[in-house]
Amino acid sequence: MRRIFSIYFLLMAFAVLALPATAPAQVSVGVAVSFGPPELPVYEQPLCPGDGYIWTPGYWAWDGYDYYWVPGTWILAPEPGFFWTPAWWGWGGRGFLFHPGYWGPRVGFYGGVNYGYGYFGHGYEGGRWDRGHFFYNREVNNVNVTEIHNVYNTTIVNNYGNSRVSYNGGRGGIEARATSEEEAAQHDRHIPPVTSQMQHMEAARQNNELRSSVNHGRPPVAATSRPGAFTEPGVAQAREAGHYNPPRTENSTGYPGSAVHPKELPANSRVVEPNTGNPKQDKKYQQQQQKLYTKQDQERQQLQQKQEQEHQRYSQQQASQEQMRQVEQQHQQQTQQMAQHHYQQQVQMSQHQQPHQGSPHGKP
């Protein structure tokens, strides 16, 4: 039997605008994997491309079949005064759950994961806002002072150790809990990842070399100076690989696991309800989401029925073992194609529903 949950769910579920503060370690968007992601690779931070950009550390994401590395990159802050809270993985009782990152006036809980470069497990030590301008701490950021003059130097004592573990809880996970300030930050107004971040993540998902099953914890593109710039100058490779030890499963063919039939996929998970500040618009978005989920559930059921009918037909014909193996391969391909199609639909809806965010005033 498979030892992992075969899941494809949308990892770009960016409507993390109403996360409860009472139990941040339990908040997720529906992704559950029975084994944790690889350790964080070691890499050098690329040069900051300009004023107003904030570092967003790299992390492991899941596409339903494999962990893949989303390179760290510099992102232009969507609003003056906003910071980035990184995405993280945490044990949820029956699997590791994904918690997407978001923008807000305070840095919230990110699992106690030490991403480095100012994100040492709690809060952010890489810079501060002052009268609409972001000031960079050169002790943890790679900044060209001939072009960016709003800098300062503050030595940071890393009290969180040098752990490269990339998840909270579970066997071998980080035993960190949210502080009262991090819990309070959940009530702040949040902005989901901006379009450039979504495109950056999608480009990483499509890059086969960033899959953990290919790079074994050492991605060839660990960080970039700008989102999606995987082949441009300034790309940082991983200097050291993170510990990579995926479970061995029966009939494993390159991915840690995959669904053969739609019934092996979990119930279509729901994204956190939109919270744009406009109740009428939120209701409209929620209705659109529900309509899409209903349609996708129906398509799942239809494909499952079709495959079961084929099973019955081949059984009545007393098909050979080789014929049944070919049928199962075809069913697996159909299921994965459907899951991929549903994934793309949810990404497009997330992009459509994301509130428009302009660039910060006076920023490039």
Overview of this structure, please?
- The chain is of the alpha/beta class and 364 residues long.
- Helices cover 26% and strands 13% of the residues.
- The protein has one domain.
- The strands form 5 sheets. It has a 4-stranded mixed β-sheet with strand order 1-8-7-13, with no helix packed on it. The chain has a 3-stranded mixed β-sheet with strand order 2-5-14, with no helix packed on it.
Observed structural traits:
single chain, disordered C terminus, 364 residues, 5 helices, alpha/beta, 26% helix
State the gist of this model.
With 364 residues, the chain is α/β, with parallel strands linked by helices. The chain has one domain (1-364). 26% of the residues lie in helices and 13% in strands.
Task: Please write out the topology.
Elements: E1 32-33, E2 53-56, E3 59-62, E4 67-70, E5 72-76, E6 83-85, E7 88-91, E8 96-99, E9 102-104, E10 127-130, E11 133-137, E12 151-152, E13 167-168, H1 180-185, H2 195-206, H3 212-215, E14 223-224, H4 279-316, H5 321-353
Parallel strand pairs: 5-14, 7-13, 11-12
Antiparallel strand pairs: 1-8, 2-5, 3-4, 6-9, 7-8, 10-11
The portion of residues forming beta strands comes to: 5-15%
What structural class results from the helix and strand content? Answer: alpha/beta
SSE topology string? EEEEEEEEEEEEEHHHEHH
Q: Could you say how many structural domains there are in total? A: 1
Give average pLDDT, whole number. 80
Low-confidence stretches: 1-30, 249-257, 356-364
Order of strands in the sheet with the most strands?
1-8-7-13
End-to-end span in angstroms?
53 Å
Q: Give the % helix.
A: 25-40%
